[in-house]
């Protein structure tokens, strides 16, 4: 069961690397603007904020990835703690988005589903 939780956490980390790319690298591109529902002017005005936010997503992905590697290397306590910190933060951010922006609830569910599954399944695996 823990392996399934780690797989979902890893998928969440990969998703957050992609979000990093969109926010920090491709923010003003037509495709990313369409994804986030921003105009060219809005994207230009928020570029610095998005750049910074993208790195938060990258760092959460890195913490989760390091946790998975540590867990699989036999450092199960440290690894699990890092996975819970990284994926749990992803989940918390999705919850904040869900509660604070009615129009972005679909995005929040997409952003939060994988870390939720990772955290819950990993917890069940560790307790079982």
From TrEMBL:
InterPro entries: DUF1304
Keywords: Membrane, Transmembrane, Transmembrane helix
Top-level taxonomic group: Bacteria
One Pfam family this sequence matches: DUF1304
Transmembrane regions: 6-23, 55-72, 78-99, 111-127
Protein name: DUF1304 domain-containing protein
């Amino acid at each position: 069961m823990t392996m399934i939780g780690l797989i979902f956490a890893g998928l969440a980390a990969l998703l957050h690397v992609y979000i990093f790319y969109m926010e920090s690298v491709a923010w003003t591109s037509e495709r990313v603007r369409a994804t986030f529902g921003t105009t060219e002017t809005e994207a230009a005005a928020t570029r610095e904020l998005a750049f910074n936010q993208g790195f938060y997503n990258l760092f959460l992905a890195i913490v989760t990835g390091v946790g998975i590697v540590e867990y699989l290397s036999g450092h199960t306590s440290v690894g699990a703690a890092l996975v819970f910190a990284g994926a749990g933060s992803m989940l918390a951010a999705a919850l904040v988005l869900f509660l604070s922006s009615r129009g972005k609830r679909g995005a929040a569910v997409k952003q939060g589903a994988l870390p939720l599954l990772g955290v819950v399944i990993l917890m069940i695996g560790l307790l079982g």
